[in-house]
Amino acid sequence: MILLAGGALDPHLTRALRRAEARGIAARGLLVGPETWPTLTLSVPDGALILDGEALAPSALWARHDVFAALADPRPAVAARALDWYEALLGFAALNPGVNVLNREALGRRVNKVAALGLAARLGLRVPKGVVTNDLQALRARAGEGLVAKPLRGGGLCVPLQDALGEQAAEDAAAPSPAFVQTRLRGPELRVTLVGARTFTFALHTEALDHRATPDAPFERVDDPPEEVLGPLRALALAMGLQLCAADLKRDAEGALVLLEMNAQPMYTAYDTACDGAITDAILDVLSAPTQAA
After folding, report:
1. C-alpha to C-alpha distance for 27 and 19, rounded to whole angstroms
2. Which residues contact 42 (CB under 8 A, 6 or more apart)?
3. pTM for this one?
4. Taking the CA of residue 167 as centre, how many other CA atoms within 13 Å lie in the half-sphere pointing to its CB?
5. Distance (Å) of CA 31 to CA 27, 195, 224, 228
6. Are 79 and 87 in contact (CB under 8 A)?
7. What is the mean pLDDT of residues 178-201?
8. ω into residue 74 within 30 of 0, thus cis?
9. CA distance 49 to 28
């Protein structure tokens, strides 16, 4: 039995539960809603799990840190609750080494974007050349160079450097937080989702600097993704311990593909719909595969 655990508002998990039922795959949801949650008891150190009064011994686990509840209700307590549930699931995975856990090696390890780009470069991928800085004086001197700024952690959008500078007082010498500043790249943006040995590539067409600003932007599947990036991307996923991840790429002035980032908890429902649920099926296949006990 596969345990699919995370937020009740997470469409990836609810989709996976429906798909598992349609395929006759035994699956159970551990879904935490904005105001509803199951009862859970995890025994330490033996790892026995009781969910809503029922003893469960899942063969596989897919745990997603819930971000959707906080989007619906931005109270700090909601985000804290999501983190507590995720920590409990990390504990279950750690206490049960024989369970097939998606992205087990990376579970609970936050992906540092700068570190991931450094690793990608060592594996042969092109990455944006830029700086991590909060030095406003140096950045103001480069405001006309077509640079962009983006946060070091997820959540915020990539924006033109001039817009980011406009949010700071003219007299400020340093911004409160550092950001990643890089040369602007051009589309279409490629989204490569890797699930085990399978890849799903889509080209996203938008004039927006950050595609998340245009959620309805058109896209199409790419049947023959560039081979020069697929091998290094697979090597990067392996090095990061990721069975499920998604890479975003754009092109530089020379026309070469450049890796923007590797996402360990990707959003992909629109792409999954476009390929008739093949991404969800691939995830369920990975979770259903037999594992070797540690």
Report:
1. 10
2. 48, 49, 50, 88, 91, 92, 95
3. 0.90
4. 10
5. 12, 23, 37, 40
6. no
7. 92
8. no
9. 13
